[in-house]
Amino acid sequence: MTVVIISTDGDQSTYNVIDWLHHFKIKVHLIDDKNRLHVNSVQLSKNNHLRFEYDNKKIDLMEIHSFWHRRGNISIAFPAIKYLEDFDFEKQFVKHLDQEQRKLKEYFNFEFRQKKHLGNIFQTDINKLIVLEKAQRLGIAIPDTLITSNKEELLNFKSKYQSIICKPLSDGLMAHDLEIGIITYYTNIISDDNLKILNNTFTVSLFQEKIEKKYELRIFFIDGDFYTMAIFSQEDTKTSVDFRKYNYVKPNRTVPYNLPVSVKDMLKVLMRELNLNTGSIDMAVTLKNDYVFFEINPIGQFGMTSYPCNYYLEKKIANYLSN
Amino acid sequence: MSNQLLDKSHFKLYANCIPVKGASRSIICDIQRGRYNFITNDLYEILSEQSDLSINDIFSFYGAENKEILEEYFHFLSSEEYIFFCEFEELGLFPKLDLHWESPSIITNAIIDVGIDSNHNFPDIFIQLEDLGCKALQLRFFTETTLNEVSEILAFTESSSITSLEVIIPYPIKVTTKQEYISFASSNLRLSLVIFHSAPQNSVLENESLPCTYILFTEDQINDEYHCGVISKSYFTLNIESFSEAQLFNSCLNRKISIDKSGNIKNCPSMSLSYGNIKFQTLKEVIRMKEFKKVWSINKNQINICKDCEFRYICTDCRAFISTIDVLSKPAKCNYNPYLETWEEK
Ligand code: SF4
Ligand code: SF4
């Protein structure tokens, strides 16, 4: 039995899952971003036959039992002819080659997904706003959210809630520069000083009411099962806005948590609607014991939930892929 | 604290703060932060037997005369962040930590000794260890060797599954510069610990360039396998892997395999029982023998005296040097008396 894993080079969680797959005596093809996939032949007939090569190993789709898209993406080798993009003609040609590659990739993903699979290669770059809207429609509480470029609107929003936060529409930002140092942009509280220096209009940004959390929940979802960890981030003001700004001296308490069935049921529907069979869900329990939903990370850093809670998620993933 | 005590009716231990009861005192093992603290056995009872009671009920159970001491307990527990205060309904939301242990590796760690007459086929041994999923390897050189020679042996691990390498080598006869030590240690990124024994003095080599490798010098002459099995507070380990493994398995020998200086395959080089020789047997053949795996599951709950010791899940065991002929007797090189709470000087 063979499992194909798509991941990035050096991802420890991937290796931990592979250790379990080997333990189950399963053959693994790891496709990471070190090499490109070489397509040998694809026969579209009654019995589809797709053969490709990766890192000099021949792989036949028929022999693959399951497929895990952990992170990263596949890239298919295409003619490495360099065209100058100065002329419209060449530009169009390069664009055409890109399209050709894209279609082939789409087809690969389609074929992979016919197999038993985990992760959804088209969903790694999930849209926060769509997810929030869908969650809300399903009756899951979300923080009041405003996207605006207008200061007045922002001031009204701020006066409605005691405290508001600003966060990126996409992923967080971490930029290095020798002169400036490291700039990170995750989630920040908007202070009155921030507002003072703001122009009447600014780059359109996402704002949310700041939820007073009793504890945060990091929920790993796999094929209908939930593994939840509670994070007590309030004790320490340094981490109370975003857990990722980790406090190394006295790390926040992270303990296993029993997610109520009613919350699980709603999340199951949400995951189904988003076409995801795995992912990491961020929520919080408020001071009033409400469950508020923040976002889903389809790639899911399950290692940080698995280890402190002794959940052995690496084994569960390997089990899923090999059953 | 007293405010919190008033607002919330109950308390809960964080699941990774686990009280362990000893003969005359207990400890709270903070598995997450890797530290422990002593508590009285009375407090242990409250934390384990009465943890579902409301704080008021606990106060009234122990009566007015104990109020002050209880307040002190709760203050200590919350300021160390071992407990949090909550409502009755929240108690069920926080399950205990599941302490089961398992590993995808058939062998998780190995020791290989090298003496004057050793003639190990290292490339072959490493391939065998790789096949068994071995992650941690300790190499001990009892007699004179050179850093180059050791580097060459270590180079055979390059493409293996081993993630952590420890080497114990005699202090070099040839004068060696700090730079030479560092370049030796950086020649293999898996090296986490290098100990030079029989050194002129005890010291630690300061090196900022290798934050994950410790280079130590010790006056001890580690020239045979007798130099092992010492039980000391400074060897206690406190993390979720070792704590959960120690619940049901031997905290030194579980999933360990060793090759002594003569090539004998053993649970540990210091034990007399050999299960074959690496020249004639494969490691796999030895592991298939039921007898070989027997010591893997001798745990501290079964060992005399240790089973009454509050350190039993953070202490590494030793089965090679034990105090009596009874296989379940306490490690011989432990000076701790859990009944008197004292470490006896030898
Ligand atoms: S059993 Fe004792 S002598 Fe053997 S490796 Fe363990 S601590 Fe050392
Ligand atoms: S009595 Fe046993 S458990 Fe306690 S310190 Fe000594 S060897 Fe370790």
UniProtKB/TrEMBL annotation, chain A:
PROSITE patterns: ATP_GRASP
Protein name: ATP-GRASP peptide maturase of grasp-with-spasm system
Keyword Nucleotide-binding: yes
Domain ATP-grasp positions: 132-322
Molecular function GO terms recorded: ATP binding; metal ion binding; ribosomal S6-glutamic acid ligase activity
GO cellular component, one term: cytoplasm
Keyword presence, ATP-binding: yes
InterPro entries on file: ATP-grasp, GRASP_w_spasm, GSHS_ATP-bd
Superkingdom field: Bacteria
This protein's UniProt keywords: ATP-binding, Nucleotide-binding
Pfam families in the record: GSH-S_ATP (PF02955)
One GO term of the biological process aspect: SOS response
